[in-house]
Design a protein that fits this description.
Largest sheet: 2 strands, antiparallel
Helix content: 40-55%
Structural class: mainly alpha
Radius of gyration: 21 Å
Number of strands: 2
Strand order of the largest sheet: 1-2
Order of helices and strands: EEHH
Shape: elongated
Number of helices: 2
Length: 112
């Protein structure tokens, strides 16, 4: 089995879906704020999806940990992978929250 070096395969970014002018129209949501609507669903929906992903990673880690505790887990690597994924997702969420709070505090301390 041969392993190709990292530089042998060029990395290409995946193509983003094309958006039309109809997809990028402005709309007002229930809070009265205006924002672009489109295929992505907006920044708020992206945050909700990210937090749902963190919750799913933590739930998966809990399920695998309970399998390990009962002796039904056949591969210990699954436990390590699941707990590491949950830990990294939680750390990333905490870092993003800290940066958002720091940005908010910086904006609030600006003179008018």
């Amino acid at each position: 089995m041969s392993i190709a070096p990292i530089g042998a395969t060029p990395f290409t970014m995946p193509a983003l879906p094309a958006t039309s002018a109809a997809d990028a129209t402005d709309a007002t949501d229930a809070t009265g704020a205006t924002g672009a609507t489109g295929a992505t669903g907006g920044f708020g929906n992206a945050l909700v999806d990210a937090l749902d992903g963190v919750e799913q990673a933590q739930d998966n880690a809990d399920q695998v940990a309970s399998l390990a505790a009962t002796g039904d887990l056949t591969n210990v690597h699954d436990l390590t992978i699941a707990t590491t994924e949950a830990e990294l997702a939680t750390s990333l969420t905490t870092a993003v929250r800290d940066k958002a709070v720091a940005a908010f505090n910086a904006i609030m301390s600006m003179p008018v």
